[in-house]
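Q: How would the structure tokens look for this protein?
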Amino acid sequence: MGILEKKTVKTNDKDNAKIKMVEVSQLHFDRDFKNVFQQENDKVAEIANDMRANGFDKSRPIIVTEAYIIVDGHSRFMAAKKAGLEKVPVIIKKFDSRDETIEYEYKMLLNSRRLTDGEYFAAFLKLDEIRCSNPNAQGSSDEAIGRQLNKSARQVCKMREIAKKADSALLEKIQNGSISINKAHEMIKAAEARKKAGVVEYNSEEKTSNTGKGINSDSFKLGVLFVLSELERGKKKSQIMKDKRIARLELGELKLNDEELSKISQRFGIA
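A: Here is the predicted structure in token form.
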């Protein structure tokens, strides 16, 4: 069975055992999991207020591994700490591997609340990493991960393309919720279409990396003279910057005569 295929996590008699009371200080988050999902502070505060009034609801114990790593009940754990509780009810569950633990965490969270696109994207990256490291994984990874995330294979395919093609700025916007997964994918496809059509685009990284490449001092000087000459003719900056010769740095096409060059050089003190 593939690691991301639907399955019921095996339990044994100890798993189904009794709820036991454990000191809050013994429990801790799964670091990888905590970095992916943000806790809902308002929800935690609301649960904490209820705990102060009524105590911890023992019908909803916190699920932990044998090492007391929390795999379900993160908000309840934070609320218990906020409410000042010393002990909380837990059930200890055994897992065969680290990957199985992470899958269980995602499954429980997906069943408990609506995720942001940033959280879905982070979950996709982690689940895809798990699947790639599993030599026994079978079938389409997009379909398998889609079942895990309750998303279509098409949506998973979009996330995979974003992961391969997006720059750091775009990834940051997805993670902080500035744009959706669908919008990010649209932006990538639009950029590819513009590139295919021959539209030249520049970003800050390209400007930095291209500095000094293919532009000699004579060409640079000629470009400066061209801009100054256009200003002399009354052109506005916005008009000059739209000139295709500047955009393509085809400075040889400027065709400024010697008289113009001399006049502009003298006017602006350029040797």
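The radius of gyration is 30 Å.

Residues 209-268 form one domain.

Upvote if useful.
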